[in-house]
Design goal:
Elements lengths: L1 H16 L2 H4 L5 H20 L3 H6 L1 E8 L6 E3 H14 L6 E9 L5 E10 L2 E12 L2 E11 L6 H20 L1
Parallel strand pairs: 1-6
Antiparallel strand pairs: 1-2, 3-4, 4-5, 5-6
Protein name: Nuclear transport factor 2 family protein
InterPro entries: NTF2-like_dom_sf (IPR032710), SnoaL-like (IPR037401)
Pfam families: SnoaL_3 (PF13474)
């Protein structure tokens, strides 16, 4: 009986002292960034080629899309409903990443990014968050923004002044 107790004790000590990094699969940042870039590039291409199912497959069931209009904050179901007519007509959007920065958290399960995009609106900025689940990266949150040169901000503010005040008035009520 003492031998069995000693063996069990030794096994418990061995397993409790094992370096957890040896148990947890190590994250290879270059591979993860490449996988994330593939997801995002395919996602943009699926919009350009109006591949509705593939486009939305890249997004999680809890995904949020924030558009350029102040009123555009959609969960994935609302965004599907908004987007469907464009995809059906074969006229969705065509965004091409010009530059992208990708960052990973320490366990390699969450990534965030910012990207410059060449779009029909001119240069835009996209940013967002992806989550890795079951070895698959899914877009959890995406924000599309127009870029405004600093020299032109006063002009843009004048153009937006009336609509912004109406939006805020309605939003607050």
């Amino acid at each position: 009986m003492k031998k069995i107790s000693v063996i069990i004790f030794v096994l418990i000590v061995c397993f409790s002292c094992t370096d957890k990094e040896k148990i947890v699969q190590k994250v290879e940042p270059k591979q993860e960034v490449a996988a994330i870039n593939k997801v995002l590039n395919s996602w943009h291409l699926d919009a350009a080629e109006t591949n509705f199912e593939n486009y939305f497959e890249a997004m999680s069931s809890k995904s949020v899309f924030v558009g350029t209009d102040a009123a555009e904050v959609w969960d994935v179901q609302e965004f599907k409903a908004f987007s469907k007519p464009y995809f059906d007509k074969g006229t969705a959007w065509d965004f091409k990443a010009v530059d992208r920065n990708v960052y990973l958290n320490s366990d390699g399960k969450i990534a965030w990014f910012d990207e410059l995009l060449d779009t029909w609106m001119g240069v835009c900025r996209g940013s967002g968050v992806l989550k890795k689940t079951n070895e698959t990266w899914k877009i959890e949150h995406y924000v599309l923004s127009l870029t405004v040169p600093n020299d032109n901000i006063q002009e843009v503010m004048k153009v937006n002044k009336v609509k912004d005040s109406l939006f805020l008035k309605n939003y607050k009520n």
